[in-house]
UniProtKB/TrEMBL annotation:
Biological source species: Ruminococcus albus 8
GO biological process: carbohydrate derivative metabolic process
Protein name: SIS domain protein
Domain HTH rpiR-type: 3-79
Keyword Transcription: yes
Keyword rRNA-binding annotated: no
Molecular-function GO term, any one: DNA-binding transcription factor activity
UniProt keywords, alphabetically: DNA-binding, Transcription, Transcription regulation
Amino acid sequence: MNRDLFSVIKAKLPNLSKGHKLIANYILSQYDKAAFMTAQKLGKTVGVSESTVVRFASELGYDGYPELQRQLQDLMRNKLTAVQRIEVSSEQMNSEDVLQRVLNQDIDRIRATLNATNKDDFNHAVDLITSANTIYIIGTRSSAALAYFLNYYLNLLFPHVKLVPSTTTSELFERIMRIDSNDVMIGISFPRYSNQTVKALKYSKTNGARVIAITDSTSSPLADYADALLLAKSDMASFADSLVAPLSLVNALIAAISIRNVDLVTQTFGKLEKVWEDFDVYAKNTETTERNEDDEDV
């Protein structure tokens, strides 16, 4: 149901029953709290029955309350301020169960991501990356960590990979001004969506480049420009975004690309291992070092 829930509620509000108006007004004024309420709790909060809440969802055109709730959660994540995020998370959990609850939620998000990601889109993304002349990657704010991670590994595999930094709008376009139909742009953003990332994808699409969007839903502004849309479930843990599922998806993308180019990967890492050893890049395991020294003494 690709409609703005708030607009739908406001349009129907004058003709709703008394009970449905109570629900509608509460959602419009307290959407950050309503998004995580069960039908029973929402009904109790506004003074109506659980069945009234279910009928309200049907009145708006949804198959049931869970569908309405999912839409509300998707919409409100892009509207919440950092302070509101803290308030919502504080109501959802207490200090004693934070560890278990957050980790279990991340497990659920990975499962949901596995179900949400279209395998054809995933394989198409691999094709676009492996066949591109230049690979551009953009991710700002919290998504910058994902963009950096992807950039690090793709740079080991391909000669022309460019991480587009978060900068002023004019500098952004200077960095990507030469993108064309031989290139691919990978944009990563989750609520609240970055305007810079959206602008970069739009510019890339206009210049004929292929676009891969890694985001959370088909209603994301990144989806409008995507040739391959990769969906990962992101949510908030306090004021911080949970990027466990998106990182897992990026990991899968890197793995698929390496499998597709196994000979190149083997050759590349053969050279890298020699460089790492010659220039003492990695610290040696203490136990192993001591054992080798003992062997030499003998």
